[in-house]
């Protein structure tokens, strides 16, 4: 069973820690914006529950460094970074069939001083999920953005989320078919989850097995807004002209502004 959440502990020096973590993270090539990185770091610091932070999709280590710096500062256990480091989208396999991001990833975490905080798993996430046994406090999904890939990652690892733990999915408000559909169709419709929302392109939801139903109305309202975007991303095609403008209009109506730790803590307080 889960545990009802009445308060979130926010470290007094959190903003300073996020500033310092971002200074290191922004040195690493990647696609995580500053506001997204700070939100992710805040989750790493504030999410209750047991278990490590699990990252699916590391590339060269931008989010790994952000998570690692925060976790190290507060003694929050390892960041398990799962990535085969052979992306056919992010790497040029025509020029080099053996292309890998792993060496750059290792250099990034060493340069940031978080190598001891990180457990790299150079493995496809679907294979890693088959043998995963540990509870997870924070699940960060930024891997295969196809519908099949995103669904596999959510199904394979979200069942291990500790009660009160949080799942966060990158690029759920960008034009990819997987993150948005899986979040809208599988997460927002389930009473296993309680509070949920977006910060820029990150979708997040907290596991609340005891009182998830109390947040059903809010999740349903969010799901209705998100559903308008699904026809635009279903095929994963680039948007142009009027369709692009329509997509941006409907996306604008999905709440996704940056939040600070206090605002987020208030949003997940038990009803």
Strand order of the largest sheet: 3-2-1-4-5-7-6
What level of helicity do the residues show? 40-55%
From the helix content, strand content and strand pairing, which structural class follows?
Answer: alpha/beta
Task: Report the CATH architecture.
Answer: 3-Layer(aba) Sandwich
CATH class: Alpha Beta
How is the CATH topology named? Rossmann fold
Q: What's the quick description here?
A:
The chain has helices at 14-25, 34-46, 62-74, 102-111, 125-131, 147-157, 177-187, 216-227, 230-233, 241-252, 261-267; strands at residues 53-56, 79-82, 118-121, 136-141, 161-169, 193-199, 202-207.
Secondary-structure blueprint:
Elements: H1 14-25, H2 34-46, E1 53-56, H3 62-74, E2 79-82, H4 102-111, E3 118-121, H5 125-131, E4 136-141, H6 147-157, E5 161-169, H7 177-187, E6 193-199, E7 202-207, H8 216-227, H9 230-233, H10 241-252, H11 261-267
Parallel strand pairs: 1-2, 1-4, 2-3, 4-5
Antiparallel strand pairs: 5-7, 6-7
Helix pairs in contact: 1-2, 1-3, 2-3, 5-6, 6-7, 7-8
What does this structure look like?
The protein starts with 13 loop residues before the first helix and ends with a helix. It has a single domain (14-267), classed as Rossmann fold. The protein is 41% helix and 15% strand. It contains 11 helices and 7 strands. The protein has helices at 14-25, 34-46, 62-74, 102-111, 125-131, 147-157, 177-187, 216-227, 230-233, 241-252, 261-267, and strands at 53-56, 79-82, 118-121, 136-141, 161-169, 193-199, 202-207. Strands 3-2-1-4-5-7-6 form a 7-stranded mixed beta sheet, with helices on both faces. Helix 6 packs across helix 7 (177-187).
């Amino acid at each position: 069973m889960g545990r009802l959440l009445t308060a979130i502990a926010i470290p007094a020096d959190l903003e300073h820690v996020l500033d310092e973590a971002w200074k290191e993270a922004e040195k690493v090539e990647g696609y995580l914006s500053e506001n997204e990185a700070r939100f992710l770091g805040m989750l790493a610091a504030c999410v209750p529950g047991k278990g490590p932070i699990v990252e699916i999709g590391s590339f060269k280590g931008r989010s790994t460094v952000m998570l690692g710096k925060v976790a190290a500062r507060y003694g929050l256990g390892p960041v398990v970074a799962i990535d085969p480091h052979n992306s056919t989208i992010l790497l040029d396999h025509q020029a080099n069939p053996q292309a890998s991001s792993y060496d750059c990833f290792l250099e990034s975490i060493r340069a940031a001083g978080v190598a001891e905080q990180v457990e790299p798993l150079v493995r496809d996430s679907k294979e890693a999920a088959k043998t995963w046994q540990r509870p997870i406090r924070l699940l960060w999904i930024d891997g295969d953005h196809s519908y099949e890939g995103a669904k596999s990652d959510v199904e394979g690892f979200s069942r291990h989320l500790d009660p009160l733990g949080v799942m966060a999915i990158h690029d759920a408000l960008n034009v990819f078919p997987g993150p948005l559909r899986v979040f809208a169709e599988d997460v927002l419709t389930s009473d296993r989850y309680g509070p949920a929302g977006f910060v820029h392109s990150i979708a997040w939801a907290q596991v609340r097995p005891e009182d998830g139903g109390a947040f059903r109305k809010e999740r349903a309202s969010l799901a209705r807004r998100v559903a308008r975007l699904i026809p635009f991303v279903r095929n994963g095609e680039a948007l142009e002209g009027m369709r692009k403008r329509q997509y941006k209009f409907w996306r604008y109506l999905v709440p996704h502004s940056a939040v600070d730790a206090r605002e987020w803590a208030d949003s997940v307080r038990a009803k």
